[in-house]
Amino acid sequence: MDNNLPEIASPTRTRAIMETYGLTFKKSLGQNFLTDINVLKKIVAAAEVSEADDVIEIGPGIGALTEQLAKSAHQVLALEIDDRLLPVLKETLAPYPNVEVIHQDILKANLKELIAEHFDGQHRLKIVANLPYYITTPIIMHLLATELAFDQIVVMMQKEVANRLAAQPGSKDYGSLSIGVQYEMDCQVAFIVPKTVFVPQPKVDSAIISLTKKKAKEYQPQDERFFHQLVRGAFMHRRKSLWNNLQGLYGKQAEVKEKLSQALAQVEIEPSVRAERLTIADFVRLADCLLATGVKVK
Predict the structure, then answer these.
(1) Is 233 flagged in the annotation as binding?
(2) Which of 24, 140, 214, 263 sits a CA distance of 20 to 30 A from 183?
(3) 207 within some domain
(4) Annotation-wise, does 130 bind a ligand?
(5) Mean pLDDT for the chain?
(6) Which residues hold S-adenosyl-L-methionine (predicted)?
(7) Is residue 6 part of a domain?
(8) 105 annotated to a ligand binding site
(9) pLDDT of residue 214
(10) Is 110 part of any known ligand binding site?
(11) Confidence class of residue 33 from pLDDT cuts 50, 70 and 90?
């Protein structure tokens, strides 16, 4: 292996790898390879990766980001779903003994088992990845649902989705996804990545988003499942009032309407307001109040 080769992300090396292996980009897997080393280094910096960190990467592609992570991290475990890329990664990442690549779908992987098998448990755990656009939201929600002790999640995604994750009440991007993520994590957009640094070039810009697990949840509903059902139902039709969406969720019977009116009055929320105006605290208070009245999803 020639260690004097240009870095994987350089345009010349990327082209050479593609030609050597006869690779084509799979649209079905949302494959876009980054060819700007400075952007990759900024991603690693945003995640504050150091020797104190074990890192899981999702979808390493040909290893451009993996290479930069390997230079800073204690250990890198990369999960790649496209088996065509496994021999490529074996070659491109050969100089880095602290990298292991496995053929695995993140949505089907047992992360707890993988972490126990591949890491020593003595280092902080981080996820750093360039996520495929078509499956970004399911991956994020899957990671949050695992309840594993990730110190930080730093991922690239479509700029529009990143804005939704970080959106604040009252903005057009604020919705059930914003609340679902911000309920668990501190969330911020680190920087924007222009579409011009990818091969092939996507139609939209990307963004790097940083998610850090909250040390303690600011608000704790009595029933988390009920709370999340309420949030999703409240945003079911964005143009409709909270009142109309609540009826869609719980029903229009006179008894139900009476309970909804009482609950809204008790938490001092106007029925005519739209869900995008409510904070996480508002939804937690409303969920607890509705639960107390015996309201159930129809």
Answers:
(1) no
(2) 263
(3) yes
(4) yes
(5) 93
(6) 32, 34, 59, 80, 105, 130
(7) no
(8) yes
(9) 87
(10) no
(11) confident
